[in-house]
């Protein structure tokens, strides 16, 4: 382990620059450190005075982040967290104006360039897409994946961002993708707080990075605490680099290079980062830089004070070893600068930050003021006593917000409910137009919605020849993947048991041998890292299929799926996309740990991903054909018990498409509309045969996708004919079946055509016990469907359909 802790001056490569140029570089670094510190101090004041909601800052880490930014080149990537403000300023990812615009939650993307007001301050992002949703040239800019607040959440995607460089270097067939890489010479720079290294995703990622040897430099900012909890309670040996010593490369298998350096030692920091970046860039060896003796002058955030948990001695030490003060002392002692020069820099920095803060506040206020002025002008025109209170309220606002503007306008509209006038109509028209504008400000871009959206894909029907072979469903999938791999060099697949054996159900059988280990490969048992790998690869222009072996296992990757991938488009206001496809299998499994169908968990946590639930492998293949040509992320849940069921092989197996979000009418009927999906659809089809014998004709609709659901509203159309609705699935009660019910009854206005109570049939509220009997008594069976459908008909006509029980 490289342990660089010296606090004396270091030799710099100065042969190509004069001393004055060298001195100017260092003074500019000091200026940046001072500016960033003033941003932190002023930002806290803005929160405490009520101008901003919450603040979190990077004070105490200025010098280390300036050193890190020196080796951050165009084409490189950052995957960091909410302490990286100085790095963002030094690298040009953000600036003081944009920082304060984000602090005030300015919804204008030109002001808050990272999120358009959707993320709290210190959450940085760079634009990866142009106005049409097409990729920008990543090699011509410094790239930052959009930050998330989840501690350690920045780690998993590092795997894919770094692996992309490895693939671009080692696979010459990707050379044409010049917008994404320069022969794999990019480094991923990841930052994390020392306390967050206790998270499992940190260890998953470090282990995976060591195994795959990806070009990443991980910086650990160690200030001794995780909010109030000290290192001694966080980490073995109270020292993360000591705890990681076994990962240090020693010629005995793959490993990482570990450096340790003090956070106030400017020369040593510059040297360490130069070494680490070179090793990662040239040799593709992951490096970890443990930056110790960092301080946090204002504590964790604006929510509290660190004086509550730090001792007097610790606080005194932090005052003495503040990195900015230590650099100032070094500049004076080394003769690089004089006192008056530094004082002038500090004065100018304070003025610059204050001016940029005022400009950001003024621009944010203009956004509000325009809406406020228009609302007041419209209310003034209405000569009714009932609008006087909301009008006076708006006129008296000293520091207005959009919430106050629209709350008072809505109040006025309610008060005018019995009054008709042209002035009221003008107010209503303005309000409706503004609601559309506010939707753009706060609600759009759950998906990127580009011309390549899967919802805009052309529908190509499956073609069957007269002698189309009847094969196992898995063979249809395998042929689909084979054709797509041949068509598009960007496609790759990975997961547990995906490579050598072609996955546990043979969907990728033989494809590693055919297309090589760079495109079809195995991973360890690390679900978070698998999803992160897929996300990072997709951010860099590749088309990954990330396999999670069983549906239940998605839960182990939920933080990455929910906090990062699903919210990516929304939180960047459509400026970043990651079209990864997550492939998994489930339904009708037997046993508590292999039996879940947690669709409601996915529906609740993964808005921002398409959720596909095909009934068989042909439908699954058509969905993959659609998604692999589109640019939005999706989960495809295949039916585990369908791989060996016989299906016809389409002649255009790699070309036909199944539209996303379009339900399909499987069987016509006149008595009850039955909506289902996945494995329970076959249960419903089985029940339909006996129900016909009992004089009950059910119409069966396959939802096919839960998100989006039934865009063409065939469920509502069917219900208008049958007037009765039954939803069948094997999620727990109140789960996906309740979601489907709400979609049909409320959104498709099915309530108005019902002539009986709509019903749902789901699994029991517990996981199924092991065995076929346990499955029968836990999840919907054909008997359950028959009896509930009959009961519904009994309620409709008890004479024709007498009670069974």
From TrEMBL:
Its EC number is 1.2.4.4. The keyword Oxidoreductase applies. GO terms for molecular function: branched-chain 2-oxo acid dehydrogenase activity. The keyword Oxidoreductase applies. Residues 471-645 form the Transketolase-like pyrimidine-binding domain. Pfam families: E1_dh, Transket_pyr, Transketolase_C. E1 component of the 2-oxoglutarate dehydrogenase (OGDH) complex which catalyzes the decarboxylation of 2-oxoglutarate, the first step in the conversion of 2-oxoglutarate to succinyl-CoA and CO(2). It is an enzyme of class 1 (oxidoreductase). This is 3-methyl-2-oxobutanoate dehydrogenase (2-methylpropanoyl-transferring). Its cofactor is thiamine diphosphate. It comes from the Bacteria. One of its GO terms (biological process) is response to nutrient. Keywords: Oxidoreductase, Pyruvate, Thiamine pyrophosphate. InterPro entries: DH_E1, THDP-binding, Transketo_C/PFOR_II, Transketolase-like_Pyr-bd, Transketolase_C.
């Amino acid at each position: 382990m490289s342990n660089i802790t010296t606090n004396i001056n270091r030799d710099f490569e100065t042969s190509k620059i004069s001393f004055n140029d060298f001195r100017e570089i260092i003074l500019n670094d000091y200026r940046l450190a001072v500016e960033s510190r003033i941003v932190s101090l002023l930002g806290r004041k803005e929160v405490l005075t009520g101008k901003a909601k919450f603040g979190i800052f990077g004070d105490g880490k200025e010098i280390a982040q300036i050193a890190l930014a020196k080796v951050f080149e165009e084409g490189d990537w950052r995957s960091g967290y909410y302490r990286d403000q100085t790095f963002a300023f030094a690298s040009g990812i953000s600036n003081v104006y944009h920082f304060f615009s984000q602090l005030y939650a300015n919804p204008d993307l030109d002001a808050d360039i990272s999120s358009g007001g959707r993320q709290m301050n210190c959450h940085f992002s760079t634009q990866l897409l142009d106005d049409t949703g097409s990729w920008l040239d990543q090699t011509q800019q410094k790239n930052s994946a959009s930050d998330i607040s989840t501690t350690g959440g920045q780690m998993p995607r590092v795997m894919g961002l770094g692996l992309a460089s490895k693939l671009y270097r080692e696979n010459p067939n990707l050379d044409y993708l010049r917008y994404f890489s320069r022969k794999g010479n990019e480094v991923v720079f990841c930052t994390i707080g020392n306390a967050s290294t206790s998270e499992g995703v940190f260890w998953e990622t470090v282990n995976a990075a060591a195994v795959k040897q990806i070009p990443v430099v991980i910086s650990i900012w160690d200030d001794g605490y995780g909010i109030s909890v000290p290192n001694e309670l966080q980490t073995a040996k109270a020292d993360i680099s000591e705890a990681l010593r076994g990962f240090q490369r020693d010629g005995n298998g793959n490993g990482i290079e570990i450096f340790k350096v003090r956070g106030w030692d400017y020369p040593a920091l510059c040297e360490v980062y130069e070494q680490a970046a070179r090793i990662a860039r040239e040799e593709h060896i992951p490096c970890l830089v443990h930056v110790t003796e960092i301080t946090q002058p204002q504590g964790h955030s604006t929510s509290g004070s660190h004086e509550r948990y730090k001792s007097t001695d610790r606080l005194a030490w932090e005052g003495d070893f503040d990195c900015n003060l230590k650099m100032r002392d070094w500049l004076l002692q080394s003769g690089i600068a004089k006192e008056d020069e530094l004082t002038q820099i500090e004065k100018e920095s304070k003025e610059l930050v204050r001016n940029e803060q005022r400009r950001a506040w003024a621009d944010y206020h203009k956004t509000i003021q325009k809406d406020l002025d228009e609302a007041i002008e419209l209310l003034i025109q209405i000569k009714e006593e009932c609008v006087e209170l909301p009008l006076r309220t708006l006129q008296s606002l000293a520091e207005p917000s959009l919430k106050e503007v629209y709350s008072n306008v809505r109040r006025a509209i309610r008060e005018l409910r019995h009054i008709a006038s042209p002035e009221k109509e003008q107010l209503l028209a303005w309000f409706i137009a503004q609601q559309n504008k506010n939707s753009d400000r706060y609600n759009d871009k759950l998906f990127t919605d580009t011309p390549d959206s899967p919802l805009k894909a052309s529908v190509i029907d499956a073609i069957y020849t007269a002698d189309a072979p009847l094969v196992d469903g898995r063979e249809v999938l395998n042929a689909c993947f084979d054709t797509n791999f041949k068509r598009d060099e960007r496609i790759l697949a990975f997961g547990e048991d995906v490579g050598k054996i072609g996955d546990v159900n043979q969907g990728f059988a033989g494809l590693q041998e055919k297309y090589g280990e760079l495109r079809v490969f195995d991973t360890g048992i690390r679900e978070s890292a698998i999803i992160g790998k897929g996300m990072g690869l997709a951010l860099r222009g590749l088309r990954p299929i990330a396999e999670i072996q069983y549906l239940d296992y998605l839960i182990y990757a939920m933080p990455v799926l929910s906090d990062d991938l699903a919210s990516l488009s929304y939180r960047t206001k459509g400026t970043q996309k990651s079209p990864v496809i997550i492939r998994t299998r489930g339904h009708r499994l037997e046993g508590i740990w292999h039996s879940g169908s947690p669709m409601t968990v996915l529906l609740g946590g993964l808005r921002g991903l398409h959720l596909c639930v095909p009934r068989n492998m042909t439908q699954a293949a058509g969905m993959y054909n659609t998604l692999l040509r589109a640019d939005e992320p999706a989960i495809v849940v295949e039916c585990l018990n369908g791989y060996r069921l016989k299906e016809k092989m389409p002649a255009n197996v790699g070309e036909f498409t199944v539209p996303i979000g379009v339900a399909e009418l499987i069987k016509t009927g006149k008595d009850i509309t039955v909506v289902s999906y996945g494995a329970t659809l076959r249960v419903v089809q089985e029940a339909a045969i006996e129900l016909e014998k009992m004089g009950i004709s059910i119409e069966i609709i396959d939802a096919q996708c839960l998100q989006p659901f039934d865009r063409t509203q065939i469920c509502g159309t069917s219900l208008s004919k049958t007037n009765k609705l039954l939803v069948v699935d094997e999620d727990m009660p109140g789960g996906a079946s309740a979601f489907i019910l709400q979609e049909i009854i409320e959104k498709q206005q099915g309530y108005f055509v019902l002539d009986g109570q709509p019903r749902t049939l789901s699994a029991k509220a517990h996981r199924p016990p092991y065995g076929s009997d346990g499955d029968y008594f836990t999840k919907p069976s054909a008997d359950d469907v028959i009896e509930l459908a009959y009961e519904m008909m009994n309620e409709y006509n008890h004479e024709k359909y007498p009670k069974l029980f």
